[in-house]
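hey can u check if this looks right to u? its 142 residues, i copy pasted from the old doc so theres a chance i mangled smth
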Amino acid sequence: MQRNDMICQEMGLPVFDAPMQQARGMSGAEYHTALKGQSWKLRLMNTIDECMKYAADKDAFISLMASEGYAVRWESTRKYITYTTPDGLKCRDNKLHEKSIARRPWNMNSEYVQSSSKENSIEQRKPMEELKRMNQPSSAPA
């Protein structure tokens, strides 16, 4: 307990918890690109979600991503997981508007997939699930 918290308790004042860091939102440009069905980041997020459903462990996840054409750099010495798309675009996991999968147990796969879209929906905008559906390869404009 910090000193200022102890002083507040002694004076009968409330002690507040440290604020949780909020997930990074989607910029306007990313949002409009997603509306057009052209967001490579949302396609990456869709692929990650699908691979997480079937992967039993880290190695299985990496091989499933490789079978989809994505390279995954996931090392214990690195802070972030780096994904490389089939087109050569790179993205760290902390830039995908969702919780990192690096620190999640594999037995929580379904919780990861269910909670990932709920955290980032923005009022007066289309929900993340709908944007993801619009950016799946089958619905992308030709």
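The chain is about 40% helix and 5% strand.
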